[in-house]
Design goal:
By secondary structure, this protein is an all-alpha fold. It is built from eight helices and no strands.
């Protein structure tokens, strides 16, 4: 469904630029739900989404003096939101990498777990997740990732439409992302506790 711009947008933005909190509340109420849904599609986390929506509207209020220069507030708001959400994912990913690097260094420096092979652990987690996929999704995933077939080629081989193959792949990746992330975090936390208490 298309997201429409708010009525009398220019007038409303001018009022907000002047510090009118009621006008800002009108703007917030108008865009809140659609903005929340948009950000959730990127982050897949209700908690993160709520936090980012609040941050974005706070930023809009703090930079309200610039609103008079905005030609289309809807575009401005959603571009701002997309960039903030992607930056959050990038930062979270870096933080996870740093955590895993720290853990790896701890493992390497601990004589009690010198023989622990994290790569094997992660590989088995991924393989287990793939084996838990529904048969069609598993087949599509394997043909794409291991035989490097394009969606059109998979569709021909499996007698499916390209769109069906695409949907199977999207569902498979979403499942793997959730399952692998949860399992790796469990392993990481378990090993961290082991290190802290040895």
């Amino acid at each position: 469904m298309a997201i429409h711009s708010i009525a009398n947008e220019k007038h409303l933005l001018n009022k907000i630029a002047e510090g009118d909190q009621r006008a800002f509340t009108v703007l917030f109420d108008f865009y809140y739900k659609n903005l929340r849904n948009y950000i959730f599609k990127i982050t897949e986390s209700q908690e993160v989404t709520e936090e980012l929506v609040q941050e974005i509207f706070i930023k809009v209020w703090e930079k309200r003096d610039l609103l008079t220069e905005v030609k289309c507030f809807k575009s401005y708001l959603f571009i701002l939101s997309r960039n903030r959400a992607l930056n959050h994912l990038r930062d979270a990913s870096r933080a996870r990498v740093n955590e895993m690097n720290w853990l790896r260094n701890q493992f390497e420096n601990s004589y009690l777990i010198d023989d622990l092979n994290l790569q094997d652990e992660y590989h088995s987690i991924i393989e287990k997740a793939i084996s838990d996929l529904p048969p069609q999704q598993q087949k599509v995933y394997n043909l794409s990732r291991y035989e490097h077939l394009k969606y059109e080629e998979i569709a021909l081989r499996m007698g499916l439409s390209k769109e069906t193959v695409k949907k199977h792949m999207q569902h498979a990746l979403a499942f793997l992302k959730r399952h692998v992330k949860d399992r790796i975090e469990e392993v990481a936390v378990g090993l961290l506790l082991f290190i802290l208490y040895i």
